[in-house]
Structure formats: C-alpha cells, structure tokens
Specification:
The complex is a heterodimer of chains A (295) and B (331). Chain A contains nine helices and ten strands. Chain A is α+β, with helices and mostly antiparallel strands. Classes of the chains: A alpha+beta (295), B mainly alpha (331).
C-alpha cells in the first residue's frame, strides 16, 4: 500500500484509478494494456532474462566486473542493462540489531528489475523532444531517432531506470519488446524465464493473478510477501511492470513510495509566474524609489 | 537473523564531520538500501555547462528587465550596458545548453513539439523567441540604428526576461532529485532574486557610479531577496536541505551567501566610490554564479545518497501502514 495513496485518501482520489494511459495518449481502439508481473518468490537468479534481453534488443556489453554484491554483476538498470537481477543475502550477522529476524532463517532474495512503464511516467512528461512516447499497449518507449540526448528523463525517473549511453549520446531503456509484442510474441525476458518469475500479459489479468499469488503465499505462512506498484492509486498511478517482493522495496534498491515529479509541476509553474512577476516588481521598485537622473 | 551486509554501507558512511560532527545524541532512524547504492540515477548534466546555462539565463533575463526600466528612466548608458549583457549572457547560456546535449546536432528536435509538461521544452521555445529579440535590442543600442525597433525589442525582451530567468527553476525542480524537487516552492523566487542581483551587479561594473543608481537599487533588492529565499528554503526542507549546508555544495552555498551579504554592505557606498562599485558588483555576479553551482551540486549530492530518497518515502509509507484504513487493502 502506498503512503502517497493514503495521504491523498482524505480528499479526492489522487488520480483516476485505472487510468488508461494509451487512451490518454490518443490511441483509439487500442489493444489491452500489457505489462510484466515479476514474482520474485520464484526467481532463481539465473539471469536468463538479462541475457535474452541483450540478445534480442542488441544491447551492448555493460561491464564485466566483479562487484562484491553477491552474484550481482550488472549492479543496476542502465542504458545498456534493461533487466537487472538483484541478489540479497540475508544471512545475518551477530550484533546487527536493527534487522527483523527472518522467519525462515537465512535466505537469499533474488529479483529481476525492469522499467516500470508507469501509468504517469515522469520520463515521458519531461522529455522535451517527444522522443519518449506512449505506445498503444500503454508502455513507454524511447524513439532513438528523435532523442537528442538532453538527459532530462534521467533525474526525472523516480526509479533510476533510464540512462544515457555514452557511445551514442542517446537515452535508452526497456521497450517491453515493442517489436515482439506487436507481433503477438512474448518479450524476450519473460520468454526466457525458466520459472515464470517474469510473467507477461494484459495488465488486468496480471493484477488478478498477482492478487491470488500473494494470498496463496500468505496462507502458506509467507507473511512478508507483498505486491509493489500494483495499486493504481499510488504515486505513479500504478505501474505496467509490478512486483511481488519478500521484503521492503528499498532492500531491492526500489523506492518505497515513489511519486511522479510532474504531479507538482502545475504548482511549480504558478510559483515561476509569481517569481517572474516579482522580478518585474523589483525593477519597478528600484526605478520608483530612485533619484531621477538625466543621462 | 539480522542485517544483511547490504545495509552496512549506509550505516557507516554517514557521520557528521568536523567540530560539530560528533555523533548525534539521538541517532536518526536507520534506513535500508541495496548495498548502499543510490535509487536514482545521478543527472548526466555537466559542469560548467548546466550551472552556466542556469546562471546565464538568469543574468540575461534580469538584465533585460533592468534595461527596460533604465530606458524608461532615460538612463541610456545603463540601458545599453544591460542590453549588451543580456545578449552576451543568453548566447553563452544557449551554447552551454547545446554543448551539454548528448547529440548536439539534434538541438532543434526540442522545437518539433510544444510540451508544457517539459520545462526544458518550454524553455527552448522561450529561448528561441527571446534570443533574437535580446540580440536585436543590444544591436540597436550599440549601433544607434533603428531606434524605434530597438525600443520595441527592449520592451519585448523585458517582458520575456523574467520567464527566461525563472523557468530553469521549474526545470531543476521537476525531477525526482530530492534537494531540487522538495525545494520547488522556493526555487523560482531564489532564481529570480539571484538573477536580479547578478544583473544589478553587472550594471554596477559596466557603468560609472553616477549612472549606476538604478542598478544598485535593483541589485540590493535582489540580494536581500536571495538571502531571504535561501533561508526559507533551508528552514522548510529540514533534512532534505542538508546538501545545501554540508559537503562541497554546502561550502559553495556558504561562500555565495557571504559574498552576497558583503556586497550588500559595499553597495550602499557604491554610488560614491568606483572601487566600492567594482568590488560590490563583482561579488554580486560571482555569488549569483556560485549559487547556481551550489544548487546544482546539492542536487547531485542528494541524488547520490540513497538516504534522501529512501528515508522520507519510508516514513510516509510507514505512516500510511499505521493508519488502520481499509483492512485487506494492502500489504
């Protein structure tokens, strides 16, 4: 549950729940919104998704370093890393008091991260060229032939997903395999996933399936299972790619309660207008209070 | 079972430093993270390009306002200097913006759409309109040709100038970077005030003290408003304002504030002493530039450190989960 949603609960709902982003972008008679449900409880950390994504999308190499972060060697999403598998070894340490005891003993969390294809996507909102666009599937895609590499989308993304590739100067991220799903194919990562940790389909169906899955886990005693970004009332209007997590989002490197920055933009423009008027008022005040002088 | 090693970096890195850097009496709530790594991507914007672009826009826009009022007051010398300043500053600002693009040859793509949700797009349209107008006003003032068109351009530039000086505040604040986004209420006023103090300061440098009266007044008003806006920003933001107070960005902001305060003092005698005018004007321009660098660096620092992203969000999420609303509504 999003704190943002709760904060807004006193008044009107923050955003129309279940907003249809493809329709908002002007697509008529569009196919259902497609997305990913990543169920991390069955992820085995094989990284087939990372490899399949790179192969299909011809994404260049992103570094072959040892990081010391468990089995993670891609570190995070980036211009050339569109799927990233996180590894968290919760093996415990004597004397570390803050952590809650893990009911099942030591555990190893794995999770395949990806672009969230937000309902309210800040990257798309702030893009000055229109290179970032909303597809008929409700996903968010960069048009590489339009992007001028201004980099504005990068700090706008509350998840740190999109980045600029220095070799070509353009911004890149997951396309949800736009070229595949248009032909009725499953995105490469989901296709390659051997445990169906990554599930692809119409978002409505995925949400139902995820609700059933989390209930099943709860009844099996996995009380810490929770859904992340499935709620259309949250700070990004819900995500096209959402997750089932076994710990707090920040443990996986995800923001616990993100809010799209452009929700505050109307207020920012009002302050800009007032400040601009203030600048003129300052000039006027300087003139009117001054001693008149001929040149 | 307790902490995974993932949490230890976040725990050890942050300790106050220097004299007042003893461990706080009440330790702040811990936060968890993925190996202490940032949640956000740090902007790829370069120094000095982007702070220079912000500063240049401010100096140009406010100089156009100053030029407009100087013209109205019949102070031709100051008006001319301010017009030349604005044309020069906007050229530098524009060049810095293009140079910072990953694909500079595609600069014009920003004019293929009009998008009010993108402050950079709005700014590109503003620049496209303002740049030539401010150039025309300066050219007419310097050559003395086409005085009527020059006067019209001066008025138009003075009308667009305030937007040029302030839209960049929305540009920075319309990001997920905590030190910028959280400051979105104060930043436009801070940018407008800092722009006025720079334009006034440049006017004091450019013309002799007996012609600089209007510039001095404009600068003093701007500098006083700048100090006020900074104080309010830091006070309201609380922990999110830390980067404006600590580290390299904090140092730059402190130097800028001291310069502004010092120049306020010398500005009072700047109408009688050329030396005081030069010192004060230089300090005002420098402090305005440093302010943009400091704000830029503060944002970078707040994007790099996951605590600024995670902690307030975690607190908000925890507050919400304590509210016993709609049972079964979430996890």
């Amino acid at each position: 549950m999003s704190g943002y949603a709760e904060d807004q609960a006193g008044g009107a709902p923050a955003a129309a729940p279940g907003l249809d982003p493809a329709a908002v972008a002007g697509h008529q008679d569009h196919p259902p919104r497609m997305g990913f449900f990543t169920d991390t409880s069955v992820c085995i950390g094989c990284k087939a998704c990372e490899v399949a994504c790179k192969e299909w999308n011809a994404v260049p190499e992103d570094g072959l370093e040892l990081t010391g972060m468990s089995y993670d060697n891609s570190v995070g999403l980036g211009a050339s890393t569109w799927r990233h598998v996180a590894f968290i070894e919760q093996i415990g340490r004597p004397g570390e008091a803050r952590q809650q005891p893990q009911p099942g003993g030591p555990r190893w969390l794995m999770s395949s991260d990806v672009c969230k294809h937000c309902t309210e996507a800040a990257c798309l909102d702030v893009c000055p060229t229109g290179a970032l666009m909303r597809t008929e599937f409700g996903t968010v895609v960069v048009q590489d032939d339009v992007c001028n590499g201004c980099g504005y989308c990068i700090p706008a993304c509350p998840f740190g997903v999109i980045a600029r590739r220095e070799s070509d100067g353009g911004a890149h991220k997951c396309t949800l395999c736009y070229d595949r799903i248009g032909d009725g194919l499953t995105p490469a990562c989901a296709k390659a996933c051997p445990t169906e940790s990554i599930q692809f389909g119409p978002l409505d169906e995925l949400r139902e399936r995820a609700g059933r899955r989390v209930a099943e886990l709860h009844s099996d005693g996995v009380a810490e299972a929770r859904l992340y970004l499935e709620d259309p009332g949250d700070g990004i209007g819900g995500a096209g790619a959402f997750f089932l997590l076994l710990d707090e989002p920040e443990v996986y490197g995800l923001p616990p309660d993100p809010v799209v920055t452009t929700r505050d933009l109307p207020r920012m423009w009002r302050h800009v207008a007032t400040a601009a008027a203030g600048l003129v008022a300052g000039g006027l005040a300087a003139w009117l209070t001054g001693t008149r002088r001929q040149p | 079972m307790s902490a995974p090693p993932a949490q230890t970096p976040g725990r050890h890195r942050r300790r106050g430093k220097g004299r007042d850097g003893e461990q706080a009496m009440v330790p702040r709530a811990e936060f968890r993270s993925y190996y202490g790594r940032p949640v956000l991507k740090e902007p790829v914007w370069k120094v000095p390009d982007v702070p220079g672009y912000l500063f240049g826009g401010g100096l140009a826009g406010a100089s156009s306002v100053l030029a407009g009022f100087a013209q109205a007051a019949g102070q031709r010398e100051l008006a001319r200097a301010a017009k030349v300043t604005s044309a020069g500053a906007i050229t530098v600002s524009f060049a810095a913006l293009i140079n910072d693009l990953g694909r500079p040859s595609r600069f014009l793509n920003m004019l293929r759409v009009f998008k009010p949700t993108s402050p950079l797009n709005v700014g590109s349209w503003l620049l496209a309109a303002y740049g030539p107008i401010s150039g025309a006003a300066a050219a007419s003032a310097v050559t003395g040709r086409l005085p009527r068109a020059g006067a019209a351009a001066t008025v138009a530039a003075a009308a667009l100038g305030p937007a040029i000086a302030t839209y960049t505040a929305a540009l920075l604040c319309d990001t997920a970077v905590p030190a910028w986004h959280e400051a979105h209420r104060e930043m436009p006023y801070l940018f407008a005030a800092s722009a006025a103090s720079a334009a006034g300061g440049m006017g004091m440098l450019a013309v002799s003290p007996e012609h600089a009266d209007l510039a001095v007044r404009f600068a003093v008003l701007g500098a006083a408003a700048e100090l006020t806006a900074k104080t309010i920003l830091v006070r309201r933001l609380g922990e999110a304002a830390e980067p404006y107070r600590q580290g390299r960005s904090g140092t730059v902001m402190r130097i800028a504030e001291n310069l502004t305060a010092a120049s306020l003092g010398t500005a009072l005698i700047a109408r009688r002493s050329r030396l005081a005018a030069v010192l004060s004007g230089t300090a005002l321009v420098a402090s305005s530039a440093l302010t943009r660098f400091g704000i830029f660096e503060a944002g970078m620092a707040s994007a790099r450190d996951p605590k600024y992203t995670i902690r307030p969000q975690r607190e908000r999420a925890d507050r919400a989960s304590r509210v016993p609303a709609e049972p079964g509504g979430g996890v």
